[in-house]
Amino acid sequence: MPHHWQAWDALAKELNFHFTLPKLLSLAGKPTPEILQILCTEQNITDLDIPAAVARKTAIFVDLEQQHETKLVEVVMEIARAAKARGLPCAVATGGNRKQVAASMKAAGVETYFDAVVTCDTFLKAAAAIGVDPADCVGYEDAPLGMEAIKRAGFMLAVDVTKLPGWVPKLAVGTGKETPAGS
């Protein structure tokens, strides 16, 4: 999340719109175009080229990912490693951009732990991509919107990773202050 925030912060300054870390955290799980549309509506911005802004945010994010080490959510990776060792399929389901997700996974060296990456209608498509009925799936999520989406998808279980032992709270970039886990 820190690189996402840095990319959003840079984009907001570059394109002259208001965006805060608490606002980003409240929208966690929504795709970038949808976040931009929400911001435009809330701030009465009528002249923002959303596809161009999405491309610019992606470029900033990918650049940050290449320059800085991607931080893994170790408690989630422990689950993915254990699942892979048992031959269980795993998928990444995200509201993020495919290019961003691929860059993050490659930078972290974790792409081999996941059988599919789904970036649209995420949870149902992730289950389909690994050939598992949603009712037999467990979804892991760190954002309230994602928890709701897992439940709507009919998964057997929705696990809030912010409640797991070993969860490290997100840091508010540039402030040194922790944000509430799961926010």
How would you describe the overall organization of this protein?
The protein contains eight helices and six strands, in the order H-H-H-H-H-E-H-E-H-E-H-E-E-E. By secondary structure, it is mainly α. The longest helix has 18 residues, at 50-67. Helix 1 crosses helix 4. Strand 3, helix 8 and strand 4 form a beta-alpha-beta unit. The chain is globular and about 50 Å long. It has helices at 2-15, 21-26, 32-42, 50-67, 74-85, 98-108, 122-129, 144-152; strands spanning 91-93, 116-118, 138-141, 157-160, 171-172, 177-178. A two-stranded parallel ribbon has the order 1-2. Strands 3-4 form a two-stranded parallel sheet.
Which key features would you list for this structure?
183 residues; mainly alpha; two-stranded parallel sheet; 49% helix; globular; disordered C terminus
